[in-house]
Each structure stands twice: as C-alpha cells, then as structure tokens.
Amino acid sequence: MFVGSAGGLLSELCKSGVEKPGFIISGVPLGNLGGPKALALIDTIQQTLGAGGMYIQFQHSLLDRRKIRTRFPNLRTVPVFLNFPPAVVYYAQR
Questions:
Q1: Whole-model pTM?
Q2: Are 42 and 67 in contact (CB under 8 A)?
Q3: Cβ atoms of residues 30 and 72 within 8 Å
Q4: Angle at 78 between CA 76 and CA 80, to 5 degrees
Q5: Strands 87-93 and 74-80, how do they pair?
Q6: Per-residue model confidence as pLDDT tens digits over 18-33
Q7: Distance between CA atoms of residues 62 and 40, nearest Å
Q8: Three-state SS at 12
Q9: Alpha carbon 84 to chain centroid, angstroms
Q10: Cα–Cα distance measured from residue 59 to residue 30, given in angstroms and rounded to the nearest whole number
C-alpha cells in the first residue's frame, strides 16, 4: 500500500520496474496545486506513461490547458455540459 502524493505514487511505479501504463486517469485539481507543482505532476505523468500512452484529466477549468499542452502537444479537450458544474476532460497522448 502506498500513502503519499500522486507524483510520489507515479515515481514509485517507475522505480518498481513494472511495465509503463498505457493510461493515466486523473481528477487531481491542477489549479489548486499552483503552477510549479502542477507542471511537476504533469512532467511525472509524461515520464511514467508508456509509448503512445494517454493521459486523461478531468477538470472544471480550462486554465491548465496550456500547461498540459507544453508536455503533450497531441491534446484534445472535450466539454462535459451534463456535469454540474460543467467540466472539461483533457485527452493527452504521448
């Protein structure tokens, strides 16, 4: 069992030598982390994903789109209007 941050969990996963995941799904509110911490988490996600892997991020804001796009140029943003409040899902691929 692991107790710690999302970034710590991903770092431990990399160190363990298991196969890199094809998908990472996150609901961590990046805007609450602050710029440097959000970028550090996005960097760790990018390094942890396997080749061609996909990072899926659920957010309630578009403010972090630029941060994600700097690490994942292949980014698609999909609004979820049926969610209350409306949300956004980012699909970012390596």
A1: 0.85
A2: yes
A3: no
A4: 165
A5: antiparallel
A6: 788 899 999 999 989 8
A7: 18
A8: helix
A9: 21
A10: 8
